[in-house]
Amino acid sequence: MGIKDSSGNIVQIAEVIAGTKENKFSVFAGSGSFLLPTLLLGGVGGTLAVANVVPEYCVSLYNAWNNKELDKARELQLGLLELNAAVTGRFGIGGMKAAMEMAGYWGGKPRLPILPATETMREEIQRIYDRTISHFSRIEGKEY
């Protein structure tokens, strides 16, 4: 049993974890913006939209936490915020699909009434994506 909490309310997430710790109830972060805080409180993982764009990044963040490399996990968490906000809120589903294509995946076209990202949006998403990948490459010490 468990829950994916996408609320972003870290107090609520902490209360669920505290209230269910003895029952083996799993709590998953529902957004890349609070994966590390959820893990630190006792959550067990995440179901992250941004992982559709940068799966290796998200796995690296989880592994850093799991390996007790908290400074690295913190730096990765902070570096993920901008891209996560872009593909989950700022540019919506059309932006998510555009970002997936930038990462080499198939995003496809959104179904109406959702519209694809405009060229201006795609350019901004590309800048954000490039900054995120650059940040990740610097931390990991290798090119992506």
What does this structure look like?
This protein is mainly α and 144 residues long. Helices cover 58% and strands 7% of the residues. The protein has six helices and three strands, in the order E-H-E-H-E-H-H-H-H. It has helices spanning 10-20, 35-41, 55-66, 70-90, 92-102, 119-140, and strands at residues 2-5, 26-29, 45-46. The chain has a three-stranded parallel beta sheet with strand order 1-2-3. Helix 2 links the parallel strand 2 and strand 3. Helix 3 (55-66) runs antiparallel to helix 4 (70-90) and helix 4 (70-90) packs antiparallel against helix 6. The longest helix is centred in the C-terminal third of the chain and has 22 residues, at 119-140. The protein is globular. The mean pLDDT is 95.
SSE layout:
Blueprint: E1 2-5, H1 10-20, E2 26-29, H2 35-41, E3 45-46, H3 55-66, H4 70-90, H5 92-102, H6 119-140
Helix pairs in contact: 3-4, 4-5, 4-6, 5-6
Biggest beta-sheet profile: 3 strands, parallel
Average residue pLDDT: 95
Shape: globular
Distance between the termini: 36 Å
Number of helices: 6
Strand content: 5-15%
DSSP summary, beta strand count: 3
If strands are numbered along the chain, what order do they take across the biggest sheet? 1-2-3
Helix and strand run? EHEHEHHHH
Tell me roughly what share of residues is in helical segments. 55-70%
Unreliable residue runs: none
Radius of gyration: 16 Å
The computed structural class is mainly alpha
